[in-house]
Each structure stands twice: as C-alpha cells, then as structure tokens.
Write a structure and sequence with these properties.
Oligomer: single chain
CATH class of the largest domain: Alpha Beta
CATH topology of the largest domain: FAD/NAD(P)-binding domain
Order of helices and strands: EHEHEHHEEHEHEEHEEEEHEEEEHEEEHH
Distance between the termini: 42 Å
Number of helices: 11
Bound molecules: flavin-adenine dinucleotide
Shape: globular
Helix content: 25-40%
Largest sheet: 8 strands, mixed
CATH architecture of the largest domain: 3-Layer(bba) Sandwich
Length: 387
Amino acid sequence: MRADVVIVGGGVVGSSIALHLAEGGQCSVIVIERATSYARASSALSASSIRQQFTTPVCMGMSRHGFDFYRDIGERLAVEDERPEIGLVERGYLYLAEAGREAGLEAAVRVQRANAVPVERLEPLALADRFAWLNVEDLGLGAFGLAGEGWFDGYSVMQAFRKKARSLGVVYLHDEATGLAMTASRVTAVETARSGTIVSGVVVDAAGPHAAPVAAWAGFQLPVAPQKRTVFAFRCAEPPKDLPLVVDASGFYVRPEGDGYIAGGPAWLPDADPDDLDADYAQFDEAMWPALAHRIPAFERIRMSRAWAGHYEMSTFDHNALIGWTPGVDNLMIAAGFSGHGMQHAPATGRGVAELITKGRYETLDLSPLSVDRVVRGERIEELNVI
Ligand SMILES: Cc1cc2nc3c(=O)[nH]c(=O)nc-3n(C[C@H](O)[C@H](O)[C@H](O)COP(=O)(O)OP(=O)(O)OC[C@H]3O[C@@H](n4cnc5c(N)ncnc54)[C@H](O)[C@@H]3O)c2cc1C
C-alpha cells in the first residue's frame, strides 16, 4: 500500500488535515486510525467550546477562522444533500478575576482589543447588573466576549470532517501504526499492526495525546503528554438565566449543555497512567462544587447526572500547539499538543498543514509561530489565558 500522505490519527485534527489535502485534489491520503469507535479519543470526550479570548495572535486568528468555519459547516462539509448539524451556540466566555488580582485579565483585554477581538471589560457593579445570578463580592474584573465564542457538538464535527474527507477519496484504514521506516533523515513508510508497511512521501503525526511515541519513532522527543481532565454534567433546580461560559478565578469553567450544565477545571492529580480515563469525582466534591456554589449561588442546589474524563494532549513545553516539520526529519509533519484548544483550532490547522505540505508555505493564516522548531530554539509562547 502507498499514499502521498499518510496521517497517523483520525480524530478532529487528522481528519481536518485529510479533508483539506483532499480538497486540493493533488495527493492521495491514507488516515490510519486504530479505534473507529473513537471512545477514548479527545475529540469524542471534549467540552467542545470556542473562544476568541486568547492573548497569542496566532491563537486568536485560528479561533476566528474556526468560528467562521463552524458557522458555515453545513454548507462547507455537506456530502451531496446531507448537511452536518453541530448545534453551534454563540454565547460569550465570561472571564473573572478576583479583586487585587486583575492585572492579568486587564492585560489580556488590552491585547485582545489590539487584535480586534470584541471583548467587554466589566467592573463588579456592571457584572452584577449584567449577570444577576453572579456573586461579585470578591471580584475585581470581568471580561466578556461579544462575538465568535460559544460551543458545539465536537463528536459531530469530527464525524463531519471524516465523512467529507472520505467522500473526496481519503482512505481510513482501521489499524494501528506501530513504527516508522527511516532512511537517513527521511521517513519512507509507516509500519502497521495488520496492514503491513505503507509507503509514503509525507507522514503526519496527528495522534493526539499519543503523538509523542509516534515522533519518537523518528528520533524526536516531542514534548506532548496526556493529561487527564474530568467533565461533570449536572442539573440545577433554579437554572441561572442565559449563562455564558464562565471561567472563574478559581480555575473552573461551567457552561450550559442541553437542559443542564457541564463544568471542568485544571488537572486534579498529576497524570501517571496515560490509559486512565476514570472520572475524578473527588475533584467535584472537594473543589469544584464549593467554588461553583460560591460564584453562582443557584448552583448550591444541583444534581450531578454523569461525569467523564478525557486526555488533554498537553504541550509540556508551553501549553500551545506544535505544528510543522519535525526538526531533523525531512518529511514528518507534526500537528499535536493543542492543550485544550484542538477542537476550535482544527479547521485552521487542517488548512495550514495542507498548505505547508502541498505549497511549501502558509498562504492564508501564518501558523509559523507554532512551529515545532521553537522547541529546539527554546522559544516559549506566553499565553495569559490558559484553561
Ligand atoms: C475534557 C476535555 C475538554 C476539552 N475541551 C475543549 C474545548 O472546550 N475546546 C477545544 O477547542 N478543545 C478542547 N479540548 C481539546 C480537544 O478535544 C483536543 O485538542 C482535540 O480533540 C485533539 O484532537 P486530535 O485529533 O489531535 O486527538 P484525538 O481526538 O485524541 O485523536 C487522535 C487519534 O489518534 C489515534 N491514534 C493514536 N495513536 C495511534 C496509532 N499509533 N495508530 C493509529 N491511531 C492512533 C487515536 O485512536 C485517536 O482517535 C478538550 C479535551 C478534553 C479531553
């Protein structure tokens, strides 16, 4: 078997890259995906929200493109007369900072406005006026996104990319990549568990939380590691009206989902086992619920309906994606380490990686600030708004 481009990993990122390559019509593409159920893939376990409120210009640009893409996805990824539905809700993110600790959020708002992100700066009185359900007693500042933010059904997005890519001739191979065949600094083929060796001109590592082992087959130490995050779903007896996605000063986030809510927060325990997908219920009881009820008193009366855990594909280098050619390897492209942003940045990543492979340069949005080379140069991206 052979293809111009072989992609390891058929989640939202690998499938977006496959789609954009196929749309160019210039190359044959095989996606190797070991789990067609996607039961453990980040793309199926995501909170699938999108924000413009980053402080890194390249991330803001990718989110802007992501929102436009998802708004038009019915048209964009239609297969014959079947249009994907992803339930996109446009409602802002509300970032909150405690009194005396406003400096970071203040700086973020300045950068966002300079980059044309529509964000409103709200003092505590204005916050209380605007969001009657919010406890503002210990708050110093809020920042509310006015457009291009919200949430959607991530699993449907991933399936829409996959379905459209297949309709354009991309082959999805249900198999596991087990190694790379190399000649000097070139990858010549991908080895698989069941389908033998697949000869390829370019290989893309889009293996999500498992991207580091793939890069290691080519001798590159990719600083990406799985980090467990639990999402808790609950219902509330007296639902707060028009809740946006709230990112509290304590680090948790909460947003509406169907007729209830979902909430999540930072990693609860340091990850030891990359295969551990057990929900950390103690995080909800010991940390999140008290913080939720403090910030939004209506959440004192809630009932948890379920919880699940997924893995962030965390860039341990600087919490930002690593996209580009692998240092020291001629033809291994990496698209990994999205650190909680991969759903919203998948459309821009697919377009950018396809440009880099087929045209040799970025033609639309310049993703070079996220290049993998920055690891070798030791140049970290400092993002103020990390969730
Ligand atoms: C709890 C949680 C909440 C999140 N919330 C958000 C959010 O609100 N907004 C946002 O933008 N992002 C969010 N993210 C992040 C986002 O979901 C991920 O960045 C994105 O899904 C990554 O997509 P991916 O395709 O790179 O990885 P995945 O979806 O994990 O896909 C990688 C695929 O590679 C396959 N694979 C791996 N190794 C091999 C191999 N050797 N051979 C064959 N196949 C292989 C796997 O089976 C998998 O299907 C969240 C993630 C989690 C876990």
